[in-house]
Recover the amino acids of this structure.
């Protein structure tokens, strides 16, 4: 592998890892802070990708189009979706055992898949890359790299930085951290936990939807795409340590690199490599890399 | 009091077995085939119930052992000569058990959600071995060309791959596995597993080395899953890597949660409930045009089940009975 190929693969690994981080960070917050195992989190990613496909003509017609307008509309819808879902469904799950949550959120996956099928159908669709991002830049003398993939990485990094600032520098972030350590204590200190969790959940949904929307032009949209992402995101969450956003960030990049270079170097064993790494890490550190608290 | 309850349970179990045994007399070919499929899944579900319900170890990789049993069966039946039923059966269970031993030894070092994920990892390992290498034609899967020959004293009373004999063999295996696990749960070993589920710290304080007990439970559960895999391969005459995929591990886990954890009957009920609900909502004689939207009512029903029946389908009779306050 020469230096340019290596660079290209590194960029791919970073891009894939950062995208995983967007989905996994919401999953780890909902899991760690709210103590809910949400199998339907992959469905939010799927919803996002289908929004990128289905909203574009609508936005083009009513709002004059534009990639960012579509993103913005999708994000607003996803926040509403997350808020309503927490209020109407997930708030029923807090008092339940983990395995009951597994069964209920599995039921939710089925509902999402069928609604998707009713609303947009079962076909595979491509999503156009916006014109101003559709070029490539030259790497070395022979290779080029698509601008859109760089754009994905930049967006993800900006979101990660924003999350870091919100969680560590604001009162809201402080309340989230307090609530995830001890729900009742935080409540008795005057934090409105119910509202807080609704906000966290809506943010988690928005992150997954955003990931789906910006990934759509690269991955295209297809039925069942959420379930593929779900398992790998659980792997990320567990490697990083449940509830740790920082852990999810490191783990997502690790998974991105292992998967990307696994496909290049050991084609035969590519799929299994991520799982082997996870097993090795958990046998070494049984509670993930960044144990919370 | 206790005697009365257990004799009532024995009667109702006998009644269910009798009804299942009589079913082929009234059911059509499709229905008999469907119930046979569920009987195999019920054996699979029972094997996981030993881990999840009886010992409190939630495994998300149980399909690996199911698939290993099935693949061992298929690989042993690659030439047209029949092979002895018992030999193939034993090999399938042994293969599953042999893989389970190191998996258990390693994954039992973690607990909770981390245990769930490590068992998934080891299952994915097997999945990719069969999916990406040429051991058994990769993702295409392989057909069984031979049959496991069931012979008694040199005679072959029936061909196990035919629907009706298979139905009764599956029913017999299910009864045997159920009886074995029921006897086990009343034994000292079973009590130790129940103690581990309730409070492992206390079991250790009481002087039990819990680790070997958990390994034994894991390996036994894997061997029973291998048995179910053997039945599945024999019935289908075909195996492919999807049998080992995490969807399969997830589905069997959903079955036992739906049926009700902690009770062996719950696992069997869950297998029946899960498959029959799907069949019901897919039935276009009942739902007409809406039958192809079966996922929507199934999802809603599953959610309603958890909300209304926190103890699973097994809790339904208690839920329907008028509530009487019991003292003492």
């Amino acid at each position: 592998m020469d230096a340019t190929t290596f660079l290209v693969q590194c960029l791919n690994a970073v891009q894939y890892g950062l995208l995983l981080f967007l989905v996994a960070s919401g999953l780890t917050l909902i899991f760690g802070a709210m103590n809910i195992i949400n199998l339907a989190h992959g469905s939010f990613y799927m919803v996002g990708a289908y929004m990128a496909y289905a909203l574009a003509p609508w936005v083009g017609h009513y709002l004059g189009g534009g990639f960012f307008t579509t993103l913005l509309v999708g994000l607003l819808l996803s926040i509403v979706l997350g808020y309503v879902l927490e209020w109407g469904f997930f708030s029923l799950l807090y008092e339940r055992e983990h395995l009951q949550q597994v069964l209920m959120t599995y039921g939710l996956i089925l509902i999402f898949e069928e609604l998707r099928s009713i609303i947009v159908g079962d076909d595979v669709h491509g999503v156009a890359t916006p014109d101003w991002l559709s070029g490539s830049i030259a790497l070395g003398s022979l290779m080029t790299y698509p601008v859109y993939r760089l754009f994905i990485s930049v967006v993800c990094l900006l979101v990660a930085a924003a999350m870091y600032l919100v969680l560590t520098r604001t009162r809201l972030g402080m309340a989230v951290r307090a609530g995830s350590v001890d729900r009742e204590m935080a409540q008795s200190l005057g934090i409105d936990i119910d509202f807080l969790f609704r906000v966290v959940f809506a943010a988690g949904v928005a992150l997954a939807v955003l990931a789906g929307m910006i990934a759509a032009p690269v991955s295209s949209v297809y039925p069942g795409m959420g379930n593929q992402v779900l398992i790998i995101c659980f792997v990320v969450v567990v490697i990083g340590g449940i509830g740790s956003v920082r852990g999810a960030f490191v783990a997502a990049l690790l998974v991105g690199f292992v998967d990307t270079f696994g496909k290049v170097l050991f084609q035969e064993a590519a799929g299994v490599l991520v799982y082997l790494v996870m097993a090795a890490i958990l046998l070494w550190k049984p509670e993930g890399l960044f144990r919370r608290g | 009091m206790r005697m009365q309850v257990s004799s009532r349970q024995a009667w109702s179990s006998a009644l269910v077995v009798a009804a299942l045994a009589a079913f082929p007399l009234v059911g059509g070919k499709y229905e008999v085939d469907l119930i046979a499929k569920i009987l195999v899944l019920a054996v699979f579900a029972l094997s996981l119930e030993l881990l999840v319900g009886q010992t409190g170890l939630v495994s998300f990789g149980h399909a690996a052992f199911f698939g290993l049993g099935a693949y061992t069966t298929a690989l042993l039946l690659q030439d047209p000569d029949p092979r002895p039923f018992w030999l193939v059966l034993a090999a399938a269970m042994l293969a599953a058990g042999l893989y389970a031993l190191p998996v258990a030894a390693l994954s039992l070092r973690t607990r909770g959600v981390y245990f769930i994920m490590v068992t998934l990892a080891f299952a994915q390992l097997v999945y990719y071995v069969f999916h990406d290498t040429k051991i058994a034609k990769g993702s295409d899967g392989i057909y069984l060309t031979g049959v496991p020959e069931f012979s008694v004293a040199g005679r072959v009373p029936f061909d196990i791959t035919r629907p009706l004999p298979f139905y009764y063999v599956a029913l017999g295996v299910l009864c045997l596995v159920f009886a074995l696990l029921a006897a086990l749960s009343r034994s000292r070993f079973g009590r130790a597993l129940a103690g581990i589920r309730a409070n492992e710290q206390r079991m250790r304080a009481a002087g039990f080395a819990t680790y070997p007990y958990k390994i034994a439970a894991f390996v036994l559960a894997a061997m029973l899953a291998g048995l179910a895999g053997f039945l599945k391969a024999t019935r289908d005459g075909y195996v492919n890597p999807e049998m080992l995929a995490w969807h399969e591990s997830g589905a069997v886990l959903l079955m036992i949660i739906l049926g009700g954890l902690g009770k062996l009957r719950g696992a069997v009920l869950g297998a029946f409930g899960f498959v029959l609900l799907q069949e019901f909502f897919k039935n276009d004689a009942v739902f007409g045009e809406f039958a192809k939207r079966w996922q929507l009512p199934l999802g809603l029903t599953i959610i309603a089940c958890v909300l209304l029946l926190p103890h699973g389908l097994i809790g339904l009779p208690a839920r329907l009975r008028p509530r009487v306050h019991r003292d003492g």
